[in-house]
Amino acid sequence: MSADHGHGGGRRHPGLAEGLSLSEPALRLLAMEELLVEKGVIGGDDVRRVMDVIAARSPADGARVVARAWTDPAFKLRLLEDPRAALAEVGYPVASGAVLSVVENTEAVHHLVVCTLCSCYPTSLLGPPPDWYKSFAYRSRAVADPRGVMREFGLEVDEAVEVRVVDSAADLRYMVLPRRPEGTEGMAEEDLVALVTRDSLVGVGAPNPPAAES
Amino acid sequence: MGGAPGEDPIDRSEHRLMEWERRTGALVDVLREKRLINTDELRRGIEAIPADEYRRLGYYERWSSSLEALLVEKELLTTQEIGRRATVVGERWG
Q1: Domains along the sequence of chain B with CATH
Q2: Which residues, 6 or more positions from B9, have their beta carbon under 8 angstroms from its beta carbon?
Q3: Topology of domain A59-202, per CATH?
Q4: pLDDT in tens, A183-199
Q5: Cβ–Cβ of B68/A28 closer than 8 Å?
Q6: Do A117 and B65 touch (CB under 8 A)?
Q7: Does the ipTM exceed 0.90?
């Protein structure tokens, strides 16, 4: 193979730098991509372009939306009633064909998000799902024993609070609007963003408390 | 799988996706954009993997398996040419 071969030249080892050998399904995936480019089914830059888009997504986007909802009651109402329109308003378009539902945690109700079937997750707003979200253990136990699962994540939900488990699907994905932590009444929207954890957007965690006044 | 009896603790460790795993996610998105495959087909392909193999394969390995079945079914690629090219790719990166 020549050094200037269109697919080998200058590309990083697809198994990361540690010299990990690639499994057969990994090699077959890379083979499919090359063949699809050669046949003109996809463009040569398509995969890289989308990888960059995916890499730019993170739970920070969801955190910004939550902080806005905490500080702007009218926005919060729009977010709960018509998430697509509210998110577009702040610059996060939701892909057509998929519905994002935002569920609000309150004093009375706590939501926990799972995808029992596979791994549906609001990636456009939170980035790719964590490994545990895709695991058998989480997918089976989140519906059977949600309080036990949350306890494993360090979240104890008071017995008086109703726990609702919402099951994501390809056409309907959920994000939790967590409760605003106590002691944050005077905080500005941009400072609140930092308190919103990824786990709190899935319901397995709570937002961080505000840093103690020094 | 949801609700299936299980007592296993949840492994909360997270791994940084490997380059090929990120390429897989992106390739599937590109093919979805072009309306060559859709999410439901991809899931059908994943559900069609026999249970023991499903458990053995990693998350994106299942995607690879499903995607291959779909591309062959749609006559965009053949199993043989994917196999031949995979050997070449393996020699290049191995």
Answers
A1: 19-93 (1.10.472.20)
A2: A137, A152
A3: Nitrile Hydratase; Chain A (3.90.330)
A4: 999 999 999 999 999 99
A5: yes
A6: no
A7: yes
